[in-house]
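Journal club prep — side note

Before the paper discussion, L.F. wants everyone to see what a predicted structure for a comparable chain looks like in token form. Sequence:
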Amino acid sequence: MRLKLGMVGGGKGAFIGGVHRIAARLDGHWDLVAGAFSSDPERAAQSAVDLGIAAERSYDSFAAMAKAEAARPDGIDAVAIVTPNHLHAPVATAFLRAGIPVICDKPLASTVEDAEALVRLVTETGLPFILTQTYTGYPMVREARALVAADRIGRVRHVQVEYLQDWLAEPVERGGQKQAAWRTDPAQSGVGGCIADIGTHAFNLATFVTGLVPHALLADLTAFGSGRVLDDNAAVLLRFEGGAKGMIWASQVAPGAKNGLRLRVVGEAGGLLWDQKHPDELELTPIGQPTRILRRGGEGVETPYRLPAGHPEGYLEAFGTLYAEAAGIVRRFREKADSDGKMVVPTVSDGLAGMHFIAAGVKSHEGGAVWIRL
């Protein structure tokens, strides 16, 4: 049986809402049936029409939607939150209190305090909460995680993530570009700019693949864009429990880089390299041996995938994997069944870790690029 999905945010002119809708449809688990697509009632109503949502399930506010959907016998099974950051916590809180599972875009909130309150609420309600850290859905990212866990590269010494974009290299927020306007506004984005928007992806990828627990960081944040309050470039050093080190460079002002995400993990016995430009490939280099190119669907690669080898899987498929896993989690919740133990989809606790990363990065920078304990 297909599950019923609601959405808050993601109306006309939004980017990530459309990505969520495609991902939700990809494997046939979800039907979008309700939404509060904008804080502008006219835009919300028109977005609902465009998406084929019945008029009675198009809402002017997320609070009205949570109340009404919870009362319907055919109410939604989960809500997807695709608003600017400052609304993540209040929207999630309203739906959790209404007894509705949540699928939330990152970062989890705009403050650590809001994130901690969400963790408590999820614990109290026992409701599923999925955080859409997209890059954890790539098959070869999961293969890298499996290789590290299987000790194929030995004890991890260093992890490095580079995430570069160039869309904020010019002051596009001044020209009314919607995505830029809210991401450069601390009232909507929170205390972090680039470090929150894509730095959290880099941080999550580093910890997801290695399983390392960070205990301190040092950050140098820069707002290169004239008149910007929030950072558009972040350089972060990490220290992990056990002695491993890490490095993150996240930038949205790097000309020539559109969405350049690269991960390198160095261990005592070998190294791994994954680049989103070639998402179906993973380099494995044991010390003293030639580099092996592992390919999704290839010999010796056990990570699940949806398309036959040689048919590329990319960003939308990775996002779709998270929605497919979210469907499994919600179904088991509805059936009061135990977890199958196979899901690795990020949750509210990963979101809290991301918020601590942002807050510590800002604190480190404001203190003159000093080490801050996590």
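L.F.'s comment for the group: The first helix runs from residue 16 to 26. Keep this in mind when we get to the figures.
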